[in-house]
Amino acid sequence: MKKIQKVEAFTGLEAAIVLIAFVVVAAVFSYVVLGAGFFTTQKAQQVVYSGVQQASSNLIIIGETYGDAEGSLNPPQIHALYFSVGLAAGGSSVDLNKTVFTYQNRTVLRTIDFASTIRCPVLPAQPGDYQWCIKSSQNDDGDAALERNEQFTIQVNLSMTQGLPPSEDFTLTIRPDIGAALPIHKSAPGGLTVMNVLY
């Protein structure tokens, strides 16, 4: 007579316990993986948004840039620049209190500070050499932030003794705290009058 061997096998309860353990481990692992994926996606979106914000310029020049040579030395030189700025389509507001102006020509490289008040003083007082101020504004709410539908005319004083000579190139760079810098590259005309359009 053959001897019957005992074979150990899973019971239904043991199989259920093992199956539940596998399901729980898989659920926890998938939750961790999905959470890490969502976190990574959110960080990537923030980086892309920040990069687009820093790379795109919020400012645009509206109209012409003018150079004032009135009362300058002989030969005449441009001692003040005037131009209007507004926001680019979809651009966020720009706080001019936190904006840096840099002026450069063949012989001068200067940072332009804003005058004692960011709004230009009432005549006859004027900003000093290498200072800027807001000359006039449209649709303005009274602060120094350039917002949608607002337009500021900026006056940048150079120097009465070391202004911009005729036929000289210059670059005025406006660097807001957020967004790309706006360079204004222009040339003075060969023959200067009191007020000159710069090209």
Task: Provide a quick synopsis of the model.
With 199 residues, this protein is an alpha+beta fold. The protein has one helix at residues 12-55; strands at residues 59-68, 80-87, 94-95, 100-105, 109-119, 131-138, 145-146, 151-157, 169-175, 182-187, 195-198. β4 and β5 (109-119) form a beta hairpin.
List keywords for this structure.
two-stranded antiparallel ribbon, rod-shaped, 199 residues, single chain, 22% helix, 9-stranded mixed beta sheet, 1 helix, alpha+beta
Fold and architecture overview:
The protein has 199 residues and is an alpha+beta fold. It has one helix spanning 12-55, and strands spanning 59-68, 80-87, 94-95, 100-105, 109-119, 131-138, 145-146, 151-157, 169-175, 182-187, 195-198. Strands 10-9-4-5-6-8-2-1-11 form a 9-stranded mixed beta sheet, with no helix packed on it. A hairpin with a 3-residue loop joins strand 4 and strand 5 (109-119). The longest helix has 44 residues, at 12-55. The chain starts with 11 loop residues before the first helix and ends with a strand. The mean pLDDT is 84.
| Spatial sequence of strands, sheet with the most strands | 10-9-4-5-6-8-2-1-11
**What does the oligomeric state look like here?**
single chain
Residue share in helices?
Answer: 10-25%
Structural class by helix and strand composition:
alpha+beta
Secondary-structure element order, as H and E?
HEEEEEEEEEEE
User: Which residues sit in consecutive blocks of at least 5 with pLDDT less than 50?
Assistant: none
Biggest sheet layout: 9 strands, mixed
Report the portion of residues in β strands. 35-45%
Provide a count of the helices.
1
Count of DSSP strands: 11
Distance between the termini: 115 Å
Label the overall shape: rod-shaped
Radius of gyration: 33 Å
